[in-house]
Structure formats: C-alpha cells, structure tokens
User: Which sequence fits this backbone?
C-alpha cells in the first residue's frame, strides 16, 4: 500500500510523459520521414499531414536511386546482408568458444581464475582502436584482411567477453549440488555439462547471445577501420550512403529505419532476456 | 477488569490472482487481545497467520472486517500511523546501517536524545546478548544475531502493540530457551501487548498467555495453552498440538454387556466399562456412532493387556523411548520416559487408558469428550 | 570387509581447517551418523566421500577399494542432499531414473525399478510431476528414491529430513531404519538433530571443528560423553552444569553449595579437591520439598509445560539456573522454595579446566564408615 | 627516432591538452547527467505496474539503436533546412541555432545524442537494482515512521550503491572512448571542439598517417581507462564484499 498526494501523482505523470517524449520522438520522427518525399520533408513549418509514400523503400530495395539530377546504383541491401553475416557469425563463434569457457570459469576455481576473468572483461575497456590499428597490418600479412572470417574474428573482442561474463554468472547460479547429484548418480563430467548445466543455463545463454548479436550489429568502429565497401555493415554503410545520396533525405531516413529495425524488433521481442542479460553483464561477477 | 486493546472483528483477506481462483487467506477472524497480554497465532505455514499479522501492521489491505487498536479503527491507516512495532521473520534490517543504528533509527526520527537513545539501545542489546555486534553491519553477522537485532529494533519502541513474526526461529536451541524467559519477562515488566506468530508450539506454550490456533484461514481455538492441550476443541487442534502427534483411529461405537465398545475396523475392539462415561455422554456417543479416537503417545501404554501389535521401531532418545507398532487398525506410537527394551518385530500389547481418551465426531471433527468427560 | 574406511582425511578451505585428520571405519550394512553443530565439517566430509570435493590428504576405501582418485560417477555411491538437489528440468520419474540411465539399465527393467522404489516411498502418484510441483515431503522422498534407485553399496544421506516439516520428519525417523535395513547398504547419515542421530545410527560419530570428538553408540555418547561440549549437544533441555569443588572427608564425599553440604555417594578419585563441572541431566533431578536432606536448595522460577514433559526452571542460592524435567501431568510438591535431589551415580564429572570427562572406571567409592 | 618522442612532444602540444580536456569533460558530463537522469527515471518506474513495464521496454529502444545511426538520426533532426530540432529552436526564438556545426553548441548536441542512447542503460541497471532490493526493510521503515527522505538517503541509496558504481564505471569507460557518435555527427569538429582521443587517433592514423602520434594517444587513453577501471573495480569489490557480509 502506498500513499501519495494528488500533486505528487500529477508531477510523476508529467515527468514520465516528458521522458517518453524525449526518448521516443527521434524514432517516431525518422520513421515518419522515411515515408515522405523530399518536398514534404522540406516544408516549413514541418507538418504531420502528408500522403505517405513507400517510394523511399522501393528505391532502396531496387538498388537504384533516381533523383532529378541523375540516377545512381546503391548497394545498401548489401550492407544489410553483411550485417547479418557478421552478427550471426560472430555470435555463433562466441557461443561456441565462450560457453564452455564460462563453464570452466564458473566451476573450476583455480589460482588466478578470477584474475583471468577480469582480464577478459577488461578487453571491453581497452580502446578499440588500440587493438584495431595494429590489426590492419597483421590482417594484411595473414591474408584475412577484408574477409568475413577476419572480421568475425575481430568481433570476438566484443562478443566473447560479453558471453563469457554473462553465462558464467548463470552457471554459477546453478547450485553445485545439482551437478554433484548427477555425477554421483553415475554420469561423467561431460554428460553433466550437457544434460544439467547447459539446459539450466539456457536462459542466460539466450540472453547473452541476444545481447552479443545486438552489440555486433551496432558496432561501427571495427568495420570502419577494417572493412572495405563490399564487406561493410549497415552502421558504416548508412554513413557512406548519406554522403553518396546527397539530399535524398527520405531515402536516408528509410535506410536508417531499415538498419535499426532488426535490433529494435529483437529488443522488443525478447526484452525480458535482454534486461536480464544487461543487468547480469554489468552487475554480477 | 482488563481492557480490550486490539479487536479483530470478522477480518477476512482474499487474494485475487489474475486468471486464477481467489485465495481466502483469512476468513472472518475475530479475536480480542487484552491489554498486557501475549497472544500467539499458531499454525502451520499457509494457515493465514502471517497474512493476519501483515494486515494488523498495514502491509496488506483488509478485504473485509475491521481492526481496532485502542478503540480507533486502524485498518485504513498507513503503517506509520498505526503505532505498531514489528519484528520481522526475515529480520528486514536496514542493510546500510549498523545494528546500533538499526535499533536507534525509529527513536531518532521521533527526536529522542542521544544519551537516552544509547542507554536504551544498550539495555536491549544486553537483554538479547548482542552488545558485541552493535557496530557491525547486518550482512556481517549470523542469522541468529540478525534475528535478535530485528527483535531489539521492535522491542525498543514504545508502541501500542508489538508484532513478533517467528522471532526466534534462527536461534540456537540453548539461547532460544534462555531468551524466551527474558523476553517474556521484558514484555510483562513493561506491560507491553504482543502478538506472536509462530509455527512452533513449544514457543507458543512458553511465551503466550493465550494461543489462537489457525488453520486454512480459520480460527480453530483460542484459549490458554493448558486448555488447548487438555481439551482440544476439535480434531485439528488435537492432532496439531502435541509432539509426537496424537494417535488417531476411526471407530464405531456400540454399547454391549456394560461395556462401551469402539470398533476399529473389523478386527480390533476397544472396550471401556460403561461407568467410565456419564449417561448423557454415552447417549451422545451412541447417537453419533462414528467417532474418531485420539490418544496422545505418552498416554499409550505397553502392557500385558490390551490390543496386540507388532513393534516396527524402538528409538531411545536419552530421556524417553519412542516405540512405533502396527496393528490391524493402523499404527500407533507410544512415548515412554523409561527405556523400553522391546525389539523390532516383537509383539506387544497396547493399552489406551480411558482417562486420556479424546473423542471427536468423525463428521465435523468437533470434540465430544476428553478423558470420559464431555467437551 | 568394511563398507567404508577413511584414513587421515584433511581438508583446508581458505586457510581454515575444515577436516583435520579424520579416520574411521564403517562396517558393511552399518548406519553411521555424522553428528555435530553446523560448521563442524560433516557436509564436507560427506562430499569428500562422494567425490564432489577433493580432500587435501587422506585415503578413502569403499567396500575395500581405494577410491581416493576415482571420479564421483565411478564410486558407486548414492547420495541424498539436504536441499534435495533435484534436477529442475526433469520430472520425478527421470530424476529417480537418472542413476539407472547412467548404468544403461534396460528400459522395461528401469521403469519397473523406478516404480518399485516410488511405491515403497509412496510417491508413485507424482512421478510425472516436475520438482517445482512437489511438496517438500515429496521432494525429499524423490531425492531419497534417486539415491536408492541403483541400489548402491554406500548410501550418503546429507541431513535429508532437515527441510521437511516436523510431522513428516517424525514419521520418517521411525520408517527410515526399516527402509534402509531392507537394502543392506552401508549408510552415512549427516544430521544436526541429536534425536535423529540417536534414533537412526548404529553408531554416532560426533564431529567438532573438523575432528572426530567421539564415536560410539547412542548409549555411549548420551551416558558417557567424552567432554562437556558433547554432553551439551545431546539432550533437551540441555544438560545442567554446576561448577563445584568436590571433596572428601571422614563423613564421605561431598561438595558445598552456598553453605549447604551436599553428600555424594560416588566420586571419582581424580575429582577430589579439583574444580569440577558436574553434568546433571534435567530428567535426573527430582523435585522435592525444601527440607529433604541432601537436596539442592532452589527457588522455582518458572514451569514450562512442553509436550510430553514439564520443564522447571529453578535457581540456587548462588544464582545458578538449573532445569529439571518430569513426565507431563505429574504434580510437584511444594511451592517456590523446593529442593532438587539427584542420584549421584548419574552425575557426569568433568574437569572444569579441560572440559574432559573424568574416567569413572578407576573410581573409588567413598562411603561414610 | 626516439620512441618516447611522441610522449614528450605531448607536453608542449596544445592539441593534445585540448584532446585530454575534451575527452574528460565529455566523459564526466555524460556520466553525471545520465546517472542523475537514469536514477530519476528508475525511481519513477520502480513500481511494477503494466504501464511502467511497458514504458521501460519502450525505453530500451534507444539503447538498441546503433550509436552511429543514432547520431545520423540526430544529424537529420538538426539539419538547418528541415530538422525538427532546428525548427523548435527557431520557434523558441533562437534564429540561427546551428547545433553540431557551431562550436558553442557542438558539445551540447553530442551530449544530447549520448544521453539519448545511453540513459536507458543507466535506467535499466538502476531499475534492476531498485527492484532487487528487499522490500522488507522498507516495510520496517514505514512501520517505524522513518520519513521518506531519510529512507532514501540512509537506506535506499546506500543499498543501491553497488549498482550505481558499476553502471557509472561501464558508462565512464565507454564514454571516455567515445567514437561512434562524435565521428558520425561531427568528425571531431567544428574546429577541434570535439576532438576526443579516439577520433583524434583515427584521424591521425588515416588522414595524417601520423601513426606514431596516433598510437601514443591511444596508449595514453588506455592508461587512463586502466587507472579508472582499477579504481572503480576496487571500490566495487569492497562494496560487494560488504553486501555479501565479508567485512
């Protein structure tokens, strides 16, 4: 039971309204823009009254941008494809490497295991460029510069620590007795990992995977430094697109919407996992 | 004449979870607590005792009924306005504050001076043997110490009513025995009124002037500890109070050859001389016919006469022996204060003395007689 | 052949000695109770035996095989945990079946065994339920069934009745011995409840700070505890302790309480003139009138009716609190001022300094001539 | 060339001091503002009502938007020709409010984007923290009649401290290395107003091909983050130990 005054209730309502407006408005506005032509966008004062058009999206999907000056080819869809390949690939590799490692860190406390875990976490805190700039040279030498493989490898810098940290927390939350019980029942350690630890940590693995996917998708700097035009994900591609398309504001808005839509959808769809993952990733340890 | 301090008037609590059936946690609960009394709400988990306590404190709304404290209706007031103090089962200490600060906070916000405050905190701490941890934080002390700190925080307040929710569950048995006495003394000396919630009958017996036995949201019996034990109002109270639990047998009554005969199943018959029961009681028993017999384990005797049974466990616990035996009508437990030499598998005879026989109506469980006298 | 043998088992956690050179043998088919206050090392010891915790040093034999280096799954033990440790994502049936699955039991036989053990423990109606749908009592039985399912030669039970309600605990205490006897397994049973320890163990090993302080039958430990701490662990209410300096003169053995001479018809020789702590169990006091010869003079402070007994708290003129217990329903004579009489043969004599019990076997009975 | 030369040069290099100052100011402001705003929002949304839950889910969206794309969105919104924010400023009487392209307001603009993207992060962590606090101490406080402000300062805030510290640490370390938003929005300009470490290093490497200076800048940035994170982690561990009762 809470007891609030009327004034208090009003002030809270007002504050919440202002917050929602500030945080939701940009997304709302960019979506609105993406359904307008340049003429309606450029009206002053701006107005919400317009006839929505999907021409901006059509242009992006067709891969051709027609303006009154000239028409040009765009490959924004290619950027979307790159984003998917890089994010999915990175998460898959990170899960494959990170989950067993997280289990090892959670269950086998050895001298310095805590330090190693912290060191891995601290990768997250190292300036990315400090790692990236030398890598440009090495990658060339190794012949994996500008390949998906090379990029996915670098993306592990974000994905792996995240997965390791979050999943470790979940493994630690499984009572050790449950695993002891399974082992004394006569099952080996690998069976215990597969039949007990993995299923019970599944929500955490899902949360970590999801978060890693979003972080990979949203990454900008890695691809900016390491990827050439045909391997660039949407974050870098959209910026290039702005320069290329000039004043085709509607198309820019549509491109932005297409770029942020996947993560936003995913976030809304799996928000519970996500919030759990975020909190765990930062707070537990 | 003492005054009614707390009046619970037909209080009900119904939880209505979404998409599920409503839960009636407390049903039409009425009770008067006299000024200066200690009343125990006793029941197993889920019986509604905690809901009742939380309604008195103001953490739960009252679905129906009224709660009056010192003549004013408090059930609509916020907790802070009820002038009630509480020791929580989960301690609920303020984690960022030391034990001292925890106990002092309420008095401090009432503007009690520093010197007096320290004095009071120290005296309570002495009582509860927590003087050595006054400067520690709750997370760094043991569960038992936290529980005592929480108890201290409640007892230090001068409130109209003190609520104690399982206040000693985490204490070592020895300390618990000592503190029970001290706390009772403290409460009586200051003429405080307290409601104790507990599932432990020993604690209720030791501390309370009166015990309210609860089950499934209903008040089963409200009486002194002695009466509840000697004259349980119904089968529930009879089996709930007492450890080991009362032995129970369903039976049919028959009068025959100047003996009142209780048929336990088809093979076992308990016979008592007709004269052990008054005429009215005999008539009532014959009228009800289906009755449930209850015998406390320490009243069950192993002897040469009586029903024969096979022993399946004989456990010596130092100052008493627990013997469990099976016979045609079920199993029976006997507690003896001497060491019993009977071995497992042996056949013994079991006697049920009429003076310790509790008889309940099988249909509704209400008590008919205790030791041959009407309930 | 021993069902279990432990030799010199030690374990240190973060500079804290948890087990200190623990050694004992358990006969095949015997039930040994590991008893002690929390933190005494019982659970760690059990886990070392199961292989869930690695000891620092020491050797473990199960049925004559040295299993010190054997992984837990190959030790052939069954274990029930205090918090049940059921697999939350498997139903009761799969939980119970898991040891049989590990042994690649044939499907029809597996089903049969699971149902049989479930019937025995009266949980055959909840086999399809997930652990979260079971009551605490059912969880406890499921955990027990899982431990028993593969008919292990060594059964480790870690306080399995701790988290169930009092009634069920009482019932199980009476039923367990029969259940275990039928399976001919060696049983190690951990508990913090002295009644459980006395009721269930063929022998009891009392652990104190990682060491075995005493090992013996319930009778050995209740009647001849080797020190004050052990005496205090057994019995409810707790044993009374009275610090005195007994002496012996021409009239016989005695001690002084306030200005009263209390005669003893028995006194170990070592105790003469030495500061002693007398251990007197509450049930060994009889309450009499104040003027009965040789009674401890006391003032009765409180009477607490427990279930099967009534406990009296009385205070001596020196302020010592003494508890007496008697069967419920019996009356006492006298009012506030009363006397406690006791049989001095039932007194336990402890050396006040070391806390160790003085050996009675070499005692020399002193009588007045 | 002497390997330490780059570092020695920094001492007399006004650009370096500018970079250091801009980075620290940027990081300090974002963390403080986002912490206060996030805490306020978390307190507003702490009750588990359907509306509050819905709002907190919606507030996840900025956090899930790539910072570079968020910067792009704000670039469109602050476009002098049609940007809605520019229009608002005009309505409010600021005729030539040029947002990111004016040195006097560039910092304000990137701060706004950073706040937009990352405040939900603070909010979510603090909300999780608030909601995980045990309710019982607050019941006790209500019963004891402890005034609400005293409850907040003496009970709520200290209990929330581990969350506040970790959330701030994460934000501080990210923020001092900010690249995406600033690069996408202004590329460090106008002038050198927003020339933070990573942007400066990036431009040095790729535009001026001054690899030595670029690396030296990054090493210094790394040293700063290392010191900061150690400081924080120590405090955090201490708090966590207290929370777990190890002190």
Assistant:
């Amino acid at each position: 039971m809470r007891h609030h005054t009327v004034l208090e209730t009003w002030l809270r309502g007002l504050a919440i309204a202002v917050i929602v407006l500030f945080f939701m408005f940009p997304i709302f506005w960019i979506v609105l823009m993406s359904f307008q032509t340049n003429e309606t966008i450029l009206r002053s004062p701006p107005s919400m009254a317009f006839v929505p058009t999907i021409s901006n999206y059509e242009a992006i999907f067709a891969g051709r941008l027609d303006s009154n000056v000239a028409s040009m080819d765009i490959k924004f869809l290619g950027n979307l494809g790159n984003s998917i390949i890089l994010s999915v690939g990175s998460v898959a590799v990170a899960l494959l490497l990170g989950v067993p490692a997280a289990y090892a860190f959670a269950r086998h406390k050895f001298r310095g295991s805590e330090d190693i875990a912290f060191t891995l976490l601290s990768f997250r805190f190292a300036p990315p460029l400090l790692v990236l700039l030398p890598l440009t040279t090495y990658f060339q030498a190794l012949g994996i510069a500008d390949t998906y493989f090379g990029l996915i490898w670098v993306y592990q810098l974000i994905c792996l620590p995240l997965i390791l940290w979050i999943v470790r927390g979940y493994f630690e939350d499984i009572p050790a007795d449950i695993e002891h019980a399974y082992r004394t029942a006569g099952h080996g350690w690998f069976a215990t990992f597969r039949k007990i630890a993995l299923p019970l940590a599944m929500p955490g693995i899902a949360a970590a995977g999801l978060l890693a996917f979003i972080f990979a998708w949203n990454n900008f700097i890695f691809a900016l430094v390491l990827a050439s035009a045909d391997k660039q994900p949407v974050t870098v591609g959209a910026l290039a697109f702005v320069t290329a398309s000039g004043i085709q504001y509607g198309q820019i808005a549509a491109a932005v919407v297409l770029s942020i839509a996947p993560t936003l959808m995913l976030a809304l769809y799996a928000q519970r996992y996500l919030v759990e993952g975020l909190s765990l990733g930062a707070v537990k340890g | 004449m003492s005054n009614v301090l707390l009046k619970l008037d037909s209080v009900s609590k119904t939880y209505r979870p979404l998409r599920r059936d409503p839960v009636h946690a407390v049903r039409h609960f009425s009770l008067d607590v006299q000024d200066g009394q200690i009343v125990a709400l006793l029941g197993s988990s889920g019986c509604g005792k905690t809901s009742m306590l939380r309604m008195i404190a103001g953490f739960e709304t009252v679905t129906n009924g009224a709660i009056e404290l010192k003549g004013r209706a408090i059930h609509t007031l916020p907790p802070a306005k009820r002038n009630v103090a509480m020791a929580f089962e989960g301690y609920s200490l303020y984690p960022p504050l030391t034990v001292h600060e925890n106990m002092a906070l309420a008095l401090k916000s009432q503007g009690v001076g520093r010197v007096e405050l320290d004095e009071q905190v120290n005296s309570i701490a002495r009582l509860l043997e927590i003087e050595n941890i006054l400067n520690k934080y709750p997370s760094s002390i043991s569960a038992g110490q936290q529980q005592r700190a929480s108890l201290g925080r409640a007892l230090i307040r001068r409130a109209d009513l003190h609520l104690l929710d399982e206040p000693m569950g985490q204490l070592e048995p020895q300390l618990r025995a000592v503190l029970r006495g001290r706390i009772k003394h403290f409460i009586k000396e200051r003429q405080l009124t307290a409601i104790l919630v507990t599932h432990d009958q020993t604690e209720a017996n030791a501390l309370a002037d009166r015990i309210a036995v609860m089950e499934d949201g209903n008040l089963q019996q409200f009486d002194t500890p002695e009466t509840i034990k000697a004259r349980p109002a119904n089968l529930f109270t009879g089996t709930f109070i007492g450890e080991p639990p009362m032995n129970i047998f369903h039976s049919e009554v028959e009068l025959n050859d100047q003996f009142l005969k209780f048929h336990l199943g088809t093979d076992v018959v308990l016979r008592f001389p007709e004269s052990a029961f008054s005429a009215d009681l005999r008539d009532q028993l014959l009228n009800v016919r289906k009755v449930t017999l209850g015998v406390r384990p320490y009243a069950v005797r192993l002897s040469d006469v009586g029903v024969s049974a096979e022993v399946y466990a004989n456990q010596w616990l130092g100052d008493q022996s627990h013997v469990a035996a099976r016979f045609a009508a079920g199993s029976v437990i006997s507690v003896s204060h001497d060491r019993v030499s009977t071995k497992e598998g042996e056949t013994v005879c079991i006697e049920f003395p009429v003076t310790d026989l509790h008889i309940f109506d099988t249909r509704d469980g209400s008590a008919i007689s205790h030791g041959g006298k009407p309930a | 052949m021993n069902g279990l043998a432990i030799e010199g088992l030690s374990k240190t956690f973060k500079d804290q000695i948890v087990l200190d050179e623990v050694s004992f043998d358990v006969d095949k088919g015997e039930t040994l109770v590991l008893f002690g206050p929390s933190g005494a090392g019982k659970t760690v010891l059990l886990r070392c035996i199961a292989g869930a915790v690695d000891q620092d040093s020491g050797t473990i034999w199960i049925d004559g095989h040295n299993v010190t280096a054997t992984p837990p799954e190959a030790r052939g033990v069954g274990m029930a945990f205090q918090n049940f440790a059921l697999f939350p994502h498997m139903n009761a049936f799969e939980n119970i079946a898991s040891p049989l699955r590990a042994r690649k039991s044939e499907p029809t036989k597996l089903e049969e065994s699971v149902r049989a053990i479930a019937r025995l423990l009266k949980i055959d109606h909840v086999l399809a339920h997930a652990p979260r749908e079971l009551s605490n009592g059912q969880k406890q039985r499921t955990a027990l069934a899982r431990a028993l399912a593969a008919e292990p030669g060594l059964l480790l039970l870690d306080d399995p009745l701790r988290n169930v309600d009092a009634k069920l605990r009482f019932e199980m205490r009476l039923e367990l011995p029969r259940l275990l006897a039928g399976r001919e397994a060696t049983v190690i049973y951990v508990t913090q409840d002295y009644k459980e320890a006395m009721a269930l163990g063929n022998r009891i090993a009392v652990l104190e700070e990682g060491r075995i302080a005493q090992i013996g039958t319930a009778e050995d430990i209740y009647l001849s505890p080797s020190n004050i701490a052990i005496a205090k662990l057994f019995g409810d209410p707790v044993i009374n302790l009275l610090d005195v300096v007994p002496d012996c003169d021409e009239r016989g053995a005695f001690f002084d309480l306030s200005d009263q001479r209390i005669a003893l018809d028995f006194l170990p020789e070592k105790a003469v003139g030495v500061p002693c702590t007398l251990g007197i169990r509450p049930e060994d006091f009889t309450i009499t009138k104040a003027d009965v010869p040789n009674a401890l003079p006391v003032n009765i402070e409180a009477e607490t009716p427990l279930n099967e007994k009534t406990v009296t708290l009385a205070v001596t003129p020196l302020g010592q609190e003494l508890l007496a217990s008697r069967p419920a329903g019996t009356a006492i004579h006298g009012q506030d001022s009363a006397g406690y009489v006791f049989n001095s043969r039932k007194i336990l004599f402890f050396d006040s300094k070391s806390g160790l019990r003085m050996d009675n076997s070499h005692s020399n009975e002193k009588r007045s001539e | 060339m002497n390997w330490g030369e780059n570092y020695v040069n920094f001492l007399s290099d006004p650009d370096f001091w500018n970079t250091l100052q801009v980075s620290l100011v940027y990081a300090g402001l974002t963390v403080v503002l986002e912490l206060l705003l996030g805490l306020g929002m978390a307190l507003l949304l702490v009750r588990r009502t359907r509306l509050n839950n819905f709002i907190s889910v919606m507030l996840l969206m900025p956090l899930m938007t790539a910072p570079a794309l968020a910067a792009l969105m704000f670039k469109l919104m602050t476009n002098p020709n049609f940007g809605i924010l520019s229009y608002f400023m005009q309505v409010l009487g600021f005729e030539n409010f040029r947002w990111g392209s004016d040195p006097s307001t560039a910092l304000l603009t990137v701060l706004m984007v950073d706040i937009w993207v990352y405040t939900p992060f603070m909010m979510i962590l603090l909300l999780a923290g608030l909601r995980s606090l045990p309710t019982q101490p607050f019941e006790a406080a209500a019963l004891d009649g402890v005034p609400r402000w005293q409850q907040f300062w003496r009970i709520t805030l200290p209990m929330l401290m581990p969350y506040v510290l970790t959330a701030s640490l994460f934000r501080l370390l990210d923020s001092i290395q900010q690249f995406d938003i600033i690069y996408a929005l202004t590329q460090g300009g106008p002038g050198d107003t927003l020339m933070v470490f990573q942007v400066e290093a990036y431009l040095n490497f790729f535009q001026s091909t001054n690899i030595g200076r670029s690396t030296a800048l990054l090493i210094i940035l790394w040293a700063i983050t290392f010191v900061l994170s150690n400081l924080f982690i120590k405090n955090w561990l201490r708090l966590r130990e207290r929370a777990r009762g190890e002190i």
